[in-house]
Amino acid sequence: MINFIIVDDDRMIIKLIEDFASKVNFLNYKGSYTSVVDALNDNASEDIDLIFLDVELPEMSGIEYLKNFRKKPMIIMISTYPDYAVDAFEYEAVDFLLKPFVFSRFFRSVQKAVKMNKFLEMQFNEEE
Question: Which of 25, 56, 77, 107 has its Cβ near the most Cβ atoms within 10 Å?
Answer without folding.
Answer: 77
